[in-house]
Amino acid sequence: MILRINGAVVPSGDGGNSGGIMEQLNNFADWFIGQETELLVKPATNTFSAWAHHIADVLNANSAEIATLAIVVCAVGMMIGPLVGAGSKWVGRLFVTFWCGVIWSAFT
Q: Which residues of 70-82 are buried (b: 16+ CB within 10 A; e: fewer)?
């Protein structure tokens, strides 16, 4: 093993023999982490990635219906809001929902 500090080669101190116990332990740890990655991390990552893509596909396929439902909810809030004393909040929510729906529909 060659150790470099700021580009200069530093002698290893063991006469060039890099087969010590720490090197073997390091090799075992590298092998173990590689196996763990192959057996546990990659399948979990692929599963969560597939779920995320599926959810994104479903949301994008129904984006117009979701935006319409949100606008209807805001309209109902605008109608019922003055009866309970919270009418001014719903107009802002309606505009934000409308423009978010327009932008979402434009990008999908």
A: bbeebeebbeebe
Looking at residue 11, its pLDDT comes to 66
Task: Give, for 10, the enclosing helix (H) or strand (E).
Answer: strand 8-10
39 plus 73 within the same structural domain: no
Q: Which domain holds residue 93?
A: 62-108
Instruction: Answer yes or no: do 54 and 75 share one domain.
Output: no
pTM: 0.54
Nearest Cα residue to 102 out of 73, 57, 56, 71? 71
Nearest to 95 by CA among 66, 63, 70, 61: 70
